[in-house]
Structure formats: structure tokens, C-alpha cells
Recover the amino acids of this structure.
């Protein structure tokens, strides 16, 4: 069994520009910043859409579904006391060139593959809700 | 989108007139400025200059950047320690890889801002890490309550325990497993090649011969990267003198000419958002370098390619056109093509994996050594007994990359 992540979660500062991303898990949803002019998802969040340069940007709910683009099983004790855990880049179904660095849970390394369909699950740490991903349940609606 | 100038690229007005390197070791226990002065004085002497001739100074990154032992002394510290009077000075960690300091110096001499620039890169990570070993970039824990919060780009990876470049580059490696069928045995050839060459480098950190079985038995760090896929933190300073090419005739050794530099970053400047997960910025730096020269990959006699992690060397082999995209695995199989007597002699002083993590500048130094024919037992001799005339150096990984084409004589 691999762990869900490192033994200690090093947490983000909840500054005004990113707090929505790190706290929307309290409602069980994943949000990304989106351009209202051209509908482009902007990640990491910024003050302007890098595609059309509109400043009309706001957080918007996404499905929380994505695909594993690549992954690694970390064994090194960068953070002492950590059991092996899986780090992945997951692309978001709504816009696959947006990737989240995350941990994969409820899956063992031997069962893992690039392209695997995954869905978000949140881990609560202090005032932060970390978006982790698990395999989409068998039989779930696509 | 090419930025190729219609006239001669300005960097071609610059040469590397002198090289120097301090002692290199796992834990020397010496200050970084002490190591820097040792390398600098050797480089100045090698160029046939005196301290008073040096009117430019440049480094990567300086000013306390990064984890302990990473930054090296700042340019003000070195200027003051060596009593330099400068017309131009520069330091920083943003740019086309570690060699950004050399590239900046070449443009400074081309522009007439300085005539002889001392460029250095110093690490004391071996001593700084002590018995504790290598650390993550973003810090490694501490107790609850005293743990800082993180902003900027690190906030997107640290919470998930992706705290080291090793983790980020392992992602590149696994993507290459998926797209190209990269194997551990192929990665291992980069490590074995470095170790074979390090045995002929008196300053190398690891010189005991390593077999493929040794490599495959090493503990995993972050899959698919094992211990021997990660470079060896060390102490040491490397210095080069970048001069205007008008000075080439004054040297008592062959001048090393800068033919072209590669500085592009056309994709997103991000580890996890870069469009092509198998290449990243090396793709752009390599392409932009070849856009600035009439030389081509088949002209290259030796390649000194960044090996902070073995997979990065494979990325560079493709990015610089020595093989097609995704073909570096088969290219290195068996190790023959990258050996000193092979098609493309690679990392001939052992690279960073075995030679020590001199952070890009060890590779620049070795390219000059080879072009000057001063490699001794590890000197590359090309078919027909010809000495190397063209070398390529690459620095960096992920969204950080720079490359440089060096020649003996004008090409």
C-alpha cells in the first residue's frame, strides 16, 4: 500500500488570488479560473487571460474529472517519515492542457497507467482542501 | 518563431580565453568564496591576463538563491575580495540555464561593455548538506506550528510532496516510458558512460567502475529514477574568462570561439504546464541555437549535455538533433555511440552524475578542455586522428534550458 502523500503536508498561503482554488473543496467542488471573454481556463491563476488578454476572469466549477498524464512513485525521504506515495500530473477533462500536480489515491503503482481516468477527492488540512485524484469508479457515468 | 539576425550573431564576437577550476570534492569544508578565488585566479592566468585586465564579472545565480550551498558568492563579494574594477557586472538565476552568465558575458564583450569578463559558478552543496544528504528545493519539514506556508510556483507542487526537481523530472521520465518505451537499461547507459569517463578525471567524485547490474540494483529515489540517475552534490568552483575575439591571437593555447547560443523558451515557463512533457525547454533552446549557425549536428565532435538527472541528457540528445524525437533510448543502447571513441563522445569528464554537480559549468569547462586538446587520458580523438573542433554544451532541465556551440578556431 502506498500512502496518500507525504507525512507532512506543506501548505499554500491562502492569498486572495488563489484562495478559491485551495478552499472550494469545502463544498466538494473543484474550481479553476476562467476567462469570461474566450472561455479559456487559466492555471495557475493570473490577472489576465494569456490567450485573449481579457481581464474579465473568474473562478468556475469544473467536473473534477481528468486523466493521468504522467506519474512517479516517490521513495526518497525528502520529508522524514514518509512512506512511498504517488505524485502525478492530471489533465482536466474540460481543457486537457491544464494540468494539476497532485497525489493519486486508492490505486497501487502496479495498476496505474498514463491515460487512466480519475476524479477529484479532497484532503482537508488546516484551512486548505487539497485536490487529490482517485480512479473513476467502475460503472460510473462517463 | 525564429529571431535569427540577418547579420552575424553577436555572440560570435566572443571567445572563452581562459578556464579554471578549484578543487572539487564531496565535502571540502572550504568557503564558497575561497573556492571561487582559486578557480578565478587559475582562469585569469590561463588566459594570460592579470587581475587588472578583468573588467567584467558575471555569475549564476549568486545572492543567496536556493538551498544552502547552491548560490555561490555574489558578484559584489567576489569583486571586493579580488579588488576588481569593473565596467560591467551581472548575476542572477533567471535565464537560459546556468550558462546564462556566460551568454550575458559574450554579449557584453560583443557590445563593448567589457573586454575580459570573469564568469564563475560555485557550489558548496556537499558541505552545506553535510551528513543530512540531499534536500528538497522547498524545504523538508520541521515540526508542525513552525512550518511556513508557501506561495508562488512552489505552492502547486509542495503540498503533494513533489518537493525536489527529482520528482518533476521523474514525471518527464515516466512520460517517456509511456510515449517512447524508455527503459531503465537505457537510462543506465548515461550513468555508466559518466562513470567510465570519470575514472579518467582526477577531480571526479565517483570513479569506481559501475556495471549495469550495480545500476539496476540501486535504490529507487522517485520512479523511474534511481540513485545513480541523480547527480552527486559536491563542492567546487568553475571559472571561465570571456573575452572579445580580438584577443584570440594573444593566447598561448587555442581560443575557444562561441559560435552560437540557444536561449529560446517558446513553451510555457512551467514544469507541469509545458506543452510537451517529454522535452520541455531543451526543445526550444536547441532549436534556437541551430537557427543561429550554419553548423549542424553532424559537425559536432563532442557533446557535454546536462545530466543533473540522466533522463535530461536523453532529452538534450533529441533536442539538439543528434537523434530523432523519442529515439534517444535506442541511440544510447549498448553505450557505444556515446563513448569517447563513439559517434558522439558524451560527458567526457564524467558529467555531473559521477564528476560532481558543478551545475552546468563543469560541462562548459570540459568542452573547452577537449577543444584545446588538453584532455590527457580522456582526450577525444576523432576518426582519422583529428582533434575535436566543434563541441556543444547544454545546461538545464524542465522549463530551464540553454545551449552553446563552441569551436576551436573560427567556423
Amino acid at each position: 500500500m502506498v500512502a496518500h502523500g507525504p507525512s507532512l503536508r506543506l501548505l499554500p498561503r491562502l492569498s486572495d488570488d488563489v484562495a478559491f482554488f485551495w478552499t472550494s473543496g469545502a463544498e466538494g467542488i473543484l474550481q479553476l479560473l476562467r476567462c469570461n471573454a474566450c472561455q479559456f481556463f487559466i492555471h495557475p491563476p493570473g490577472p489576465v487571460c494569456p490567450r485573449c488578454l481579457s481581464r474579465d476572469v473568474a473562478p468556475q466549477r469544473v467536473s473534477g474529472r481528468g486523466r493521468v498524464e504522467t506519474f512517479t512513485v516517490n521513495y526518497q525521504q525528502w520529508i522524514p517519515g514518509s512512506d512511498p506515495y504517488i505524485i502525478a500530473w492530471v489533465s482536466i477533462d474540460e481543457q486537457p492542457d491544464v494540468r494539476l500536480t497532485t497525489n493519486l489515491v486508492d490505486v497501487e503503482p502496479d495498476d496505474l497507467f498514463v491515460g487512466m481516468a480519475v476524479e477529484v477527492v479532497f484532503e482537508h488540512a488546516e484551512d486548505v482542501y487539497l485536490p487529490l485524484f482517485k480512479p473513476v469508479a467502475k460503472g460510473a457515468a462517463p | 518563431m525564429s529571431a535569427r539576425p540577418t547579420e552575424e550573431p553577436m555572440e560570435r564576437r566572443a571567445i572563452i580565453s581562459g578556464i579554471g577550476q578549484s578543487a572539487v570534492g564531496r565535502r571540502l569544508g572550504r568557503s564558497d568564496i575561497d573556492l571561487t578565488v582559486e578557480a578565478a585566479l587559475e582562469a585569469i592566468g590561463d588566459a594570460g591576463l592579470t587581475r587588472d585586465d578583468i573588467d567584467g564579472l558575471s555569475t549564476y545565480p549568486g545572492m543567496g538563491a536556493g538551498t544552502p550551498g547552491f548560490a555561490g558568492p555574489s558578484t559584489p563579494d567576489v569583486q571586493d575580495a579580488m579588488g576588481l574594477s569593473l565596467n560591467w557586472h551581472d548575476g542572477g538565476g533567471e535565464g537560459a540555464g546556468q550558462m546564462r552568465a556566460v551568454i550575458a558575458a559574450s554579449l557584453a564583450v560583443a557590445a563593448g561593455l567589457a573586454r575580459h569578463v570573469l564568469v564563475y559558478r560555485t557550489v558548496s552543496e556537499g558541505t552545506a548538506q553535510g551528513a543530512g544528504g540531499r534536500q528538497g528545493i522547498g524545504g523538508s519539514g520541521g515540526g508542525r506550528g513552525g512550518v511556513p506556508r508557501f506561495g508562488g510556483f512552489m505552492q502547486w507542487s509542495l503540498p503533494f510532496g513533489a518537493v525536489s526537481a527529482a520528482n518533476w523530472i521523474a514525471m518527464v521520465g515516466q512520460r517517456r516510458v509511456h510515449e517512447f518505451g524508455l527503459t531503465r537499461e537505457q537510462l543506465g547507459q548515461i550513468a555508466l558512460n559518466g562513470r567510465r569517463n570519470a575514472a579518467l578525471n582526477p577531480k571526479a567524485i565517483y570513479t569506481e567502475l559501475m556495471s549495469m547490474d550495480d545500476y539496476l540494483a540501486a535504490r529507487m529515489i522517485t520512479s523511474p529514477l534511481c540513485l545513480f540517475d541523480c547527480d552527486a552534490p559536491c563542492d567546487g568552483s568553475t571559472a571561465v574568462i570571456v573575452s572579445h575575439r580580438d584577443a584570440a591571437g594573444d593566447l598561448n593555447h587555442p581560443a575557444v570561439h562561441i559560435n552560437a547560443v540557444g536561449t529560446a523558451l517558446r513553451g510555457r515557463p512551467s514544469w507541469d504546464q509545458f506543452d510537451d512533457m517529454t522535452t520541455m525547454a531543451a526543445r526550444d533552446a536547441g532549436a534556437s541555437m541551430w537557427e543561429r549557425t550554419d553548423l549542424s549536428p553532424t559537425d559536432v565532435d563532442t557533446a557535454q549535455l546536462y545530466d543533473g538527472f540522466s533522463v535530461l541528457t536523453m532529452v538534450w540528445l533529441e533536442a539538439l538533433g543528434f537523434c530523432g524525437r523519442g529515439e534517444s533510448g535506442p541511440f544510447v543502447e549498448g553505450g557505444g555511440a556515446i563513448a569517447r571513441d563513439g559517434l558522439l563522445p558524451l560527458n567526457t569528464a564524467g558529467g555531473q552524475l559521477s564528476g560532481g554537480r558543478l551545475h552546468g559549468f563543469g560541462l562548459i569547462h570540459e568542452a573547452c578542455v577537449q577543444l584545446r586538446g588538453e584532455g590527457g587520458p580522456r582526450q577525444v580523438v576523432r576518426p582519422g586522428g583529428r582533434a575535436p573542433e566543434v563541441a556543444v554544451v547544454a545546461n538545464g532541465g524542465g522549463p530551464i534550458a540553454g545551449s552553446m556551440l563552441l569551436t576551436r578556431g573560427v567556423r
